[in-house]
User: Which sequence fits this backbone?
């Protein structure tokens, strides 16, 4: 089981995504999308995007 988790983490760290597609999929606001595009350009790894996106807290 531990081996599977390590492989999953490695896969997400190296999976390259379009910044625009990532933002659409996760409903990221336009200013935040612009920030990610400035940081990485059109493409970035999934790991880079997840660690650098700032999301508004959910209101319960």
Assistant:
């Amino acid at each position: 089981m531990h081996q599977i988790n390590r492989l999953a983490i490695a896969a997400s760290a190296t999976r390259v995504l379009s910044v625009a597609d990532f933002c659409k999929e996760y409903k990221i606001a336009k200013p935040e999308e612009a920030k990610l595009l400035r940081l990485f350009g059109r493409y970035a790894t999934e790991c880079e995007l997840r660690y650098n996106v700032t999301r508004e807290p959910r209101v319960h």
Summary: The mean pLDDT is 85. The chain has one domain: 2-52. Strands lie at 16-18, 43-45. The longest helix spans residues 2-14.
